[in-house]
Amino acid sequence: MFLMSFRPPYFSQSNEIFGEEFLGEKSISFPISEVGFLDNFAGVKTAGLREVLVEDEDGNLVFRVQPRKRDTAINYTVKSGDNPSKIAHKFGIKVTTLLWGNGLNVKQTLHIGQSLKIPPTDGIYYTVQQSDTLGEIAKTHNIELSKIYAYNPHVKDNIIAVGKDIFLPDAKKTFVQRSFSGKQVESSGGVLESIGLRIRRPTKGVLTQKFHSGHYAIDIANKLNTPIYAAAGGKVIKSQDGWNYGYGKYMIIDHGNDIETLYAHTNLRKVAVGDEIKTGQLIGLMGNSGRVWGPTGIHLHFELRIRGRKVNPFNYF
């Protein structure tokens, strides 16, 4: 039973148990947190009930009703007055979980009627890559393998399909360095000659902001002085300290063929203008110089420019 110091006028004074005829129990009580999870009082059932066989005080097997949490995603339609914070609270998940699960960022506006995927708990969706194994995925995201199986009933015997999304409970968005793939050759001048442009991921960490209108780059956050590597071979054409229009300490590498990459907000630059750089060479350390604030904090601001136009790096990793 709930102990309340204040009873509103609509609160029943009766001690009669509601729903006894359906639940088959003389008395039922759940912790307040579990009741809130079962019915969040916003008209949305975030879980359900299940009957389990347990022994009572006399050693007899009886059915008991217990809360049952979701292990799969559900869809939610945005209503008037909704925002990411309200929706996340409604389902008992973090705002970042909601945003990551739907490819959104904090600057984007929700629209009435928009459909959102609500993960079963905090975590991320991960798209299986070529040569991935469940063990490697679990290790990379610092979670237990058993949790992946628990929230992905379609995954059996460590068999996962490339391109398939799996849910990683308690994981955060991780930016994993990947090497070049396909046929790439670097000339002595550092020009990238390949069948389709492919660049290396310049660092590792948590992806805090994707490429979108108003932010034509990606942000990867990690600890101070996390190494930053050249995404491709080339020649350094900018390397300077200062404010630099908010970039802070930054570098630009010219890869030839009108292709450039920019690395901003560094704590320390390891290269100078005119240096010839190889793919994967250490060029700087992560920091928070320039215009940095909010949840992004210490991070690398990474831009890819092709013929003077900023493009989404994820299309070229």
State Rg. Answer: 26 Å
Q: Largest sheet, described in full?
A: 10 strands, antiparallel
Number of strands: 18
- The DSSP helix count reads 6
The CATH architecture of the largest domain can be named as Distorted Sandwich
Strand content: 25-35%
* CATH top-level class of the largest domain: Mainly Beta
Average of pLDDT: 75
Number of separate structural domains:
3
Structural class: alpha+beta
Question: What are the low-pLDDT stretches, counting only 5+ consecutive residues below 50?
Answer: 1-49, 178-195
Within CATH, the superfamily of the largest domain carries the name Glucose Permease (Domain IIA)
The CATH topology annotation of the largest domain reads as Glucose Permease (Domain IIA)
Shape: elongated
Describe this structure in words.
The structure is a single chain. The protein is of the alpha+beta class and 317 residues long. It has three domains: 20-69, no CATH class; 123-172, LysM domain (Membrane-bound Lytic Murein Transglycosylase D, Chain A, Roll); 184-315, Glucose Permease (Domain IIA), CATH 2.70.70.10. Helix content is 13%, strand content 30%. It contains six helices and 18 strands. The strands form five sheets. Strands 9, 10, 11, 12, 13, 14, 15, 16, 17 and 18 form a ten-stranded antiparallel sheet that branches. A hairpin with a 2-residue loop joins strand 17 and strand 18 (309-311). The model is unreliable at 1-49 and 178-195 (pLDDT under 50).
